[in-house]
Amino acid sequence: MADKRDYYEVLGVSKDASADDLKRAYRKLAKQYHPDMNPGDKTAEAKFKEVNEAYEVLNDPAKRQRYDQFGHAGIDPSYGAGGGGFGGAGGFGGFDVGDIFESFFGGGFGGFGGSNRTRNPNAPIRGNDINVTIGLSFMEAAKGCKQKIQIQRLEQCETCGGTGAKKGTSPETCSECGGTGQVKVQQRTPIGIIQTTRTCTRCNGKGKVIKEPCSSCRGMGRVRHSRTLEVSVPAGIDDGQTFMLRGQGDQGINGGPAGDVNIMVTLRPDELFERDGFDVWCDIPITFSQAVLGDEITVPTIDGKVKYEVPEGTQSGTVFRLRNKGIQYVNGRGRGDQYVKVNIEVPRNLSSKQKDVLKDFEKLSSDKNYEKRKTFFDRLKDAMK
Fold first, then answer.
1. What is the residue-level pLDDT of the chain in tens, covering all 385 positions?
2. Could you give the angle at the alpha carbon of 371 between the alpha carbons of 368 and 374, nearest 5°?
3. Which of 16, 84, 110, 158 has the smallest C-beta neighbourhood within 10 Å, fewest atoms?
4. Strand, helix or coil at 340?
């Protein structure tokens, strides 16, 4: 893992980037490298996973703080395991950084000590969330669908049963603190000898030590597994929105609950429809004669084709509304509307006979047949006076 790229570099943002900056950068890169957009491209697939991993960490304030402070070792339990690593109780490399400051300042300096000193390292800790992005077609998002996703999550080590100790052994009571997780320290000060209590550095406050770590999890008690999950995409979900699989993220520590899987949706463009919230828009070309005389036309909707009566004298760009033909509200009742914009297509490659008929038609027409034309020239006449 030493060759991992910096997460800020992966997303192309600065270290003081806001949550909105992160989201914008992530959505742009997720779309660029999404497997649906790059079928068979292993390089794009690798970059897509790298982008997801970076966003998962930087979008979580707690993970981001640990990453900013300790780098990759601060957010991945398997990083550097076997040599002390990054302990869940504030330990790093086998000792508690806070103890250095506590010995001089009595704790609570620069974010060390304080809450870490009073937190019970054996208390249940919730597992981390996992962020995933899936690409959907317009209709899959509008109607809902089933999708399969692949995740990498931390699960209890089957070899040691989550103890972190080699099979056939178990964690032993810490000889330094006698299993209490705390030790008493006496300090000589100008006002006399002061006795304080601090977290045991040998066991990081757990009260137990692992002399023979499990070879599978290297003493962490959890290992990372690849899992395929089937998810039900809710009907009506939109581009950039997220839905959740509860309890499917990383397993918790000390009996804590598992995290969740947050699934963000990106939509591929559709050939017929555009979306505006829960409303649907589409453009339909009609002929000159259909616009002049009126006609019954076929309109595509997300539920299939419907008939619509175009009134006589319809102008190009006119928008008609089809009530309740839009997208249903997510997890709610009702749905949006569909808006149909008609565009009059000017005919090309006319025969001589067709041209003659149009010329005769033009001779029989007057300003009363063209309201916009008459209004325009009236204004032009006034402007030229």
1. 446 889 999 999 998 899 889 988 988 888 888 877 788 888 888 888 888 888 988 988 888 888 887 787 777 655 544 333 333 333 333 333 344 344 444 444 334 334 444 467 778 889 999 999 999 999 999 999 999 999 999 999 999 999 899 988 999 999 888 888 888 888 777 677 888 888 888 888 888 899 999 999 998 899 999 999 999 999 999 998 999 999 999 999 888 999 999 999 999 999 999 999 999 999 999 999 999 999 999 999 999 999 999 999 999 999 999 999 999 998 778 999 999 999 999 999 999 999 999 999 888 888 777 777 667 667 766 677 6
2. 80
3. 16
4. strand
Please work out, in degrees rounded to the nearest 5, the angle formed at the alpha carbon of residue 124 by the alpha carbons of 94 and 71. 45
Structure tokens given for 197: 């209590």
Which of these, 280, 288, 271, lies nearest to 347 by C-alpha position?
288
CB atoms inside a 10 Å sphere around CB 35: 15
Q: What is the CA radius of gyration of the chain?
A: 33
Contacts of 178 (CB under 8 A, 6+ apart): none
How many beta carbons lie within 10 A of that of residue 30, not counting itself?
A: 22
pTM recorded for the entire structure: 0.62
Cα–Cα distance for residue pair 281/241, rounded to 1 Å:
20
